[in-house]
Specification:
This protein has one domain. The mean pLDDT is 77. The strands form 2 sheets. It has a 5-stranded mixed β-sheet with strand order 1-2-3-4-5. The chain contains 3 helices and 7 strands. By secondary structure, the protein is α+β, with helices and mostly antiparallel strands. Strand 4 and strand 5 form a beta hairpin.
Length: 104
């Protein structure tokens, strides 16, 4: 089973630029998210656990976070597909400053 097929059980999946996937929840709840090309490529080899990773990341997404990126081997919500992640861990309370930092 491909990653796209695995995600199709929970999402309407559409190809996007750069190998990314646009994910829209089938049940209409939640938000549409973009799984970027690098994250998709990393998950293709482990699609059995990938769906759980994607669902967890979508559940952790806040405010304007609409892109899922690979950060430290973990799928993480972000506001930008250019490798930008939040400056606090997803488990921490939402920062009030709205500060974001890039990672290498």
């Amino acid at each position: 089973m491909t990653l796209r097929e695995a995600l199709a059980s929970a999402f309407v999946v559409t190809e996007a630029e750069g190998g990314a996937l646009l994910l829209r929840p089938r049940d209409g709840s939640g938000r549409a998210m973009v799984l970027d090309g690098a994250a998709r490529a990393a998950l293709e080899t482990r699609s059995a656990t990938a769906v759980a990773d994607v669902l967890r990341a979508i559940g952790e997404a806040r405010g304007r976070e609409h892109v899922l990126v690979l950060h430290g081997g973990r799928i993480t919500p972000s506001t930008d597909p250019d490798s930008v992640v939040r400056d606090t861990a997803p488990e921490a309370p939402a920062p009030t400053s709205g500060t974001w930092v890039p990672y290498d």
